[in-house]
Amino acid sequence: MAKQNPKANRRTSITDLARTLGMSISTVSRALAGHAEVSEATKQRVRQLAEELHYQPNQLAAALRRGRSNTLGVLVPHITGHFFPEVVNGIAVEASKAGYNVMICQSNEDVEQEKKNLELLMNAQVEGILVSHANTTLDFAHFDAVNKLDIPLVFFDRVVEGMQGHHVGSVVLDDYAGAYAVVSHLIEQGCRRIAHFSGPLHVNINRNRHQGYLDALTDHHVPVIEDLTCFFDLNLETGAVAMRELLQSAELPDAVFASNDLAAAGAMQVLKERGLRVPQDIAVAGFSNETFTILTEPTLTTVDQCCHEMGQTAVQQLVRMIPDDSDKTPDPIVLKPRLIVRNSSRRLPDEAQ
Amino acid sequence: MAKQNPKANRRTSITDLARTLGMSISTVSRALAGHAEVSEATKQRVRQLAEELHYQPNQLAAALRRGRSNTLGVLVPHITGHFFPEVVNGIAVEASKAGYNVMICQSNEDVEQEKKNLELLMNAQVEGILVSHANTTLDFAHFDAVNKLDIPLVFFDRVVEGMQGHHVGSVVLDDYAGAYAVVSHLIEQGCRRIAHFSGPLHVNINRNRHQGYLDALTDHHVPVIEDLTCFFDLNLETGAVAMRELLQSAELPDAVFASNDLAAAGAMQVLKERGLRVPQDIAVAGFSNETFTILTEPTLTTVDQCCHEMGQTAVQQLVRMIPDDSDKTPDPIVLKPRLIVRNSSRRLPDEAQ
DNA sequence: TTGAAAGCGCTAACAT
DNA sequence: ATGTTAGCGCTTTCAA
Prior knowledge:
The structure is a homodimer. By secondary structure, chain A is an alpha/beta fold. Chain A has helices at 14-21, 25-33, 40-52, 59-66, 83-97, 111-123, 141-148, 175-188, 204-219, 236-246, 261-273, 307-321; strands at residues 71-76, 101-106, 128-131, 153-156, 168-173, 194-198, 229-231, 255-258, 283-285, 302-304, 333-335, 338-340.
């Protein structure tokens, strides 16, 4: 009975509103945009009809016309685990605050995907891009392309060294300071033979954490013992393996600082298995403040990476870079991590921070 | 010296290419799109210049013209923790496979944000929307608006009951089957007094899991003991508290099934604290297969929610709903969860699945 | 206070 | 095989 339009699923447009109201589309457009020059009466009529017809403005058209999409692009290696979801969350929240939508892509740690995603974001006319590059990325030419289009770029966490200052911003964690803080803490707890489980040094994060470890020892006049540092890919199993090996030594360490929480957890499991007490016999500390660190027994001392703050900060920097007349080469931002002291390292009473 | 364009940051357009090549924009457009009708020679010239000038097609314009944005919208309560990032990951991967971009919004469990985000997605002209609604959402009128615009909608995990079959798809986990499987497993391990830590029953997930618990008992002729079920908001602390209370009882349970891994972990901590052995004295099982469940001691038996698969499946269903002539009212999809037996419940030798 | 008209960059008839 | 043209829905001069 009801006469259905044959092409019913076309959305209501400004033109439709204008026609039914008997006014020009420019007036309708202005009314909807809340321009002061339009009479209240007209605004009322327009808004009411828009409501009735479930009018939804077409952002695509508006963006095309305006030349701005109001969208930021995000490119991360993946959105699983603890760190990236948390950072992306910070990004989403802050972007929304600044009036931007967010388009998220993941490279799956693959350079080719990364290139594709980058093009995708450029084609989507994003006004700025936030990137943490894949760990297989060695050639960064594809980021130059972004630069050439004058799309502001902010790297976070994994930054491209040597690209700073070239229309590019960056936000990283001060890994050095984080490691320095944990190791200093361990020393304060009376530890003198502190082992270090480090990831491979060609990754700058690991290099910085290792340097923090070394400098903290030196500054506190604790001798650096080469054999106490083990390099390997840090995870639960390898952490356990390394710990077992370390326990073969003639002289045992009195603490282990792992550059990653999983490796620390693996080490703790071995220590307990062997009947060694944590922290009394050997103190343990990790890095990242993963969710599970409050679940281990004892709870794990670690360094918080301020993920949410990193996302926020990155967006703030990016948004400042967007206006045409803005500073395109902002200073790199380095966030101070937070030492989180828990039971795996607390030997003295009331050492809570 | 170098003469810089005053308005240098305008991106290269098809028109620019056409002008420099001395051909019409339609030829260029066709060449770039790889139409068969264009000569190879022309294609070559066009592609080369496009490369040289770093031409990037403007998706906004293409989408506007075509009337399709090639974008799917995703609306989740948040992208932190374990579950949602993992599902979103599945969504992103599958969407990309199907040639769609993804726009992700989070409601932060807030209905108002949810409404706003929904409008945002509609305005962005997404071709379909995947939603897991905020847990404060009771009125679902804002989803009707999506429906009215003929934008296909797929709910996942948190579904709107009663909206099914109305141009709406859904993908959920079979919580009932998951709970039924764990409890059956516990019974097979010889447990007869199985306690249940359940979340509030007004949430359907909890209701289903509880029912699975009850039915598994009944079907295996194990008596249902009312006092063994505790209702509370499940987390680490409350799990510990509930466990302590339970240990006051005259007759102890011989197993605990918590509808959430954190509560199970809390319970395990208390058990160990009291010198009770897991699983020999009291077996423990959780639900969700959180990352940390392989880190607890003993490792925690749990139910995997197939997060990635849920994301994939949801996208597949959504994509099928997009064509004009498609079935707009697909059958709800119910995913079978996977029981993961670990040491916290393994009493018999070789019970690995 | 309102309207007419141009055009953002692209695609797709419809020519030729 | 290539060109001409109209128009997607919107914003924004310019004119009235």
